[in-house]
């Protein structure tokens, strides 16, 4: 009995440790006080203020725009890589794997700095394309991880069955492979989206002058003293991403049940 | 001219030869089994036929046309995989219709053909099921229907029954053979199960280490195996391995490695000193209390009653010998420790070449 109570207690502590800060952030978004001070008084004023704050909204739009393109590119690249490297020798597979996974181990700081130096060397200004390349490089490993896990437990003979029934490569991809890996593509894309959306360091190095992303905007507003508008936007983003994760989990869950024997 | 003919087919993986100059011919409408232990090249042969892999030498001809460079999807061969490889996101109907859709048939025709195929494999009523909602045997039928509905020139079966339990497997064997006969389709079946090969096939090709050891009807292969491997892979056999010591008329004296000597009768000409393996199937090994000219003495080590037969494990000539006797009701019984004499009809002993190895 005591053991049971203790284990519940332990779980509760871990949960509080993990989620209390987020709960506080969300609660303060609905608090009247400008300085996140107690007592709590419910108010929507920070959400109203947010709706007027074009700078913050633009930063959010930029971040979503960048992360969405990153996500799509990463999914396409990861899928092509996985499909392409499947039939190659184990040596090539290992090579592709390490080249793609390497950015996981390189600190973002160094990655950002080197991309910036590359720009300088090329005599270019900071631009959106380089920012996008940077984001793709750091997000790709996550998309690859998710997709390769799915592809590994896919039965190769299912594809071969499609060929033997008279379907060419494109038809086989469209009608057999794609339906089987689309949940993993969705999950991989979302993962890449989140990594990109969240990234501060790389964006800070590479963002074209005059534009901003949400992480950069939040960071700089902390320096100048911030209002709970940040809490408000964070809350909106949090709720939205939870909703998306929920939807994906539901799709993945049901299709996984359908797909995996 | 045969329908399918394979000439000098060779395949290497990373320098290792897995298929070594295979040649074989198959008549239209016949059922050929490729039988052998794992790693013998039977699956590789099938995959080369299907077109999933490219050969390193040789040709595959169908109806006199070399098909080596025709891609899988233009070959029109049906294949049933070991794992069935059904499309998990499609229903039974959709799975079976898939091949027909690739052939640009009209919706109406497809519907009719699919219905016929489903009826043939006795799955009526399960059209809307997904593969994972069905048993192994049912999935097997879907896979078979899907492969047959495209009216393939050749049906390829890759260990297709081995995932089923014994009872279902036997049922499916019978059904598979009936359907194959009815449709009249040339079929190549890969298996490591000798019993399955014996029951299903018109012809069997026994393979080992990338070569065909022998090809023939079930009876030919069982009754007159060409070498020790074929004799031991299909069914059981007693081997007495040694060298020919003496010859007088058609009676030969064989000296075994352990020094024991036995006599056998053969109409073939064997040279003195030649290494041979005298081979007798257990069911053709007679057990008796009476000695005769060519019988060999032995001692019963173990008796196993198996219902229709009794199996005797007998020590003779310094080795273990199996004898299988049909239980017909009034047979002579032998007990452990009895001294017995083993005999066989001269026409039932096979003398095979022996390379001197164990």
UniProtKB/TrEMBL annotation, chain A:
Topology class, membrane: Multi-pass membrane protein
One cellular component term from this protein's GO annotations in UniProt: plasma membrane
Main location: membrane
Gene Ontology biological process terms from the UniProt entry: transmembrane transport
Places the protein is found: Cell membrane
Transmembrane segments: 7-30, 64-83, 95-122, 128-147, 230-252
Gene3D superfamilies, per database record: MetI-like
Family: Belongs to the binding-protein-dependent transport system permease family. CysTW subfamily.
Protein name: Spermidine/putrescine transport system permease protein
Upper classification of the organism: Bacteria, Bacillati, Bacillota, Clostridia, Lutisporales
UniProtKB/TrEMBL annotation, chain B:
Residues covered by the ABC transporter domain: 4-234
TM region(s), chain numbering: none
EC number: 7.6.2.11
Pfam families per the UniProt record, alphabetical: ABC_tran, TOBE_2
Statement: the UniProt record of this protein carries the keyword Membrane: yes
Molecular-function annotations in GO: ABC-type polyamine transporter activity; ATP binding; ATP hydrolysis activity
Catalytic activity annotation: ATP + H2O + polyamine-[polyamine-binding protein]Side 1 = ADP + phosphate + polyamineSide 2 + [polyamine-binding protein]Side 1
InterPro entries hit by this protein: AAA+_ATPase, ABC_SmlMolc_Importer, ABC_transporter-like_ATP-bd, ABC_transporter-like_CS, Mo/tungstate-bd_C_term_dom, P-loop_NTPase, PotA-like, Transp-assoc_OB_typ2
Alphabetized SUPFAM superfamilies for the sequence: MOP-like (SSF50331), P-loop containing nucleoside triphosphate hydrolases (SSF52540)
The entry's keywords: ATP-binding, Cell membrane, Membrane, Nucleotide-binding, Translocase, Transport
PROSITE patterns, A to Z: ABC_TRANSPORTER_1 (PS00211), ABC_TRANSPORTER_2 (PS50893)
Gene Ontology CC terms: ATP-binding cassette (ABC) transporter complex
Recorded superkingdom: Bacteria
Record text on subunit structure and interactions: The complex is composed of two ATP-binding proteins (PotA), two transmembrane proteins (PotB and PotC) and a solute-binding protein (PotD).
Family: Belongs to the ABC transporter superfamily. Spermidine/putrescine importer (TC 3.A.1.11.1) family.
Protein name: Spermidine/putrescine import ATP-binding protein PotA
Species: Lutispora thermophila DSM 19022
UniProt gene name: potA
